[in-house]
Every structure is written in C-alpha cells, then in structure tokens.
Write a structure and sequence with these properties.
Elements: H1 2-11, E1 14-27, E2 30-42, E3 47-55, H2 58-71, E4 74-75, E5 87-91, E6 94-100, E7 107-108, H3 111-120, E8 125-131, H4 135-147, H5 152-159, H6 163-166
Parallel strand pairs: 7-8
Antiparallel strand pairs: 1-2, 2-3, 3-4, 5-6, 6-8
C-alpha cells in the first residue's frame, strides 16, 4: 500500500526535457554516438530538481536524467506565486538574475530558466540570463539561485522585524 502511494506521488510531478545533445566518440571503426539529456522535475508547489542522463539511446538517457532529477529535488521558499527576494547566481560562464514580480506578471524567462521556475510552481517572476548561453550551466545557475533563497519568516526573525517589512511591496498593502 505504501509503495502505491509513493508511485502516485511520483505521477503528480511535472517532468520537462529541457535539452538533448548528441555526442560522438571517435573509435577505430568510425564514430560511436551517444545522447545526453537534461531533465527538470518539479511538483508545482516549491520543489524542483534537475538531472543529467547519458546513454546510447535517447529514451534511456531521459529515464536516467529523470531519476536523477527526482533524487535531487530541493524545496524552495515561495511567497504566493513568486520568490521572496532578488538573487543573482553564477555557474561557470552563465549568470542568471531572478527578481520577484507582482501577481499577474507571468513568467518572463527564456528556455532553461523558464522550465526550472515553472516546474517549481513559480507563476510570477522576472529573469535575465547573461553570459554563456550553455543551457546546462544556465539551468544549474537557476537552481543555485533558487536554492539560495531565504525564507522570509526566518529573515524577519533574524532581523527582529515584522514579516511585512521583509515581504515584497505588493503583498504589504492588502491589510
């Protein structure tokens, strides 16, 4: 019974294949091709993970990447439909800037960044990807930025100020 509940939980995850690359190894008889897949998995509720899988066949590479992404899932603090604060993250030559946006803005992001933030359940965000366009590094930089997010409740406690002081301006005016 517990196994079945676990399987049901797996089925609810949002799985996106972000990139598939064909690689070639030169051997005596010619070239031997294999594939690398980059997969993003999220629950649309603040948890997201990325995985890379390599295999001789595309479906096998995707399966491996998906499995690794599920194992690497991390929880991200959210405020409603956006992130708590601005952050810039780097991975090799790729730099990604993430900025919270007011409700109704939507996801303003390109390719790999969009896949990660949408799988995490973020519906309103402004992003800018700079430097290298290498999709693997862009996705890793996005994950790095999201995992470095600080929970607004913890920040308020550390600073000794009310929660409203550390929240974005559009969430303060409702009361």
């Amino acid at each position: 019974m517990a196994k079945r509940e676990f399987d049901d939980a797996i089925e609810e995850l949002d799985e996106r294949v972000v990139h598939i690359a064909r690689t070639a190894k030169v051997v005596k008889g010619g070239r031997r091709f294999s594939f690398r897949a980059l997969v993003v998995v999220g629950d649309n509720n603040g948890s997201v993970g990325i995985g890379v899988g390599k295999a001789r066949e595309v479906p096998e590479a995707i399966r491996k990447a998906s499995e690794r992404a599920r194992r690497s899932m991390k929880k991200i603090p959210l405020i409603g439909t956006t992130i708590p604060h601005e952050i810039t993250a780097r991975q090799s030559g790729a730099q990604v800037f993430l900025k919270p946006a007011s409700p109704g803005t939507g996801v303003i992001a390109g390719g790999g960044v969009r896949a990660v933030v949408e799988a995490a359940g973020i519906r309103d965000i402004l992003t800018k990807s700079q430097g290298s366009a290498n999709i693997l590094n862009v996705v890793k930089a996005t994950m790095k930025g999201l995992t470095q997010m600080q929970d607004p409740v913890e920040v308020a406690q550390q600073r000794g100020v009310p929660l409203k002081r550390v929240q974005p301006f559009w969430s303060r005016h409702h009361d």
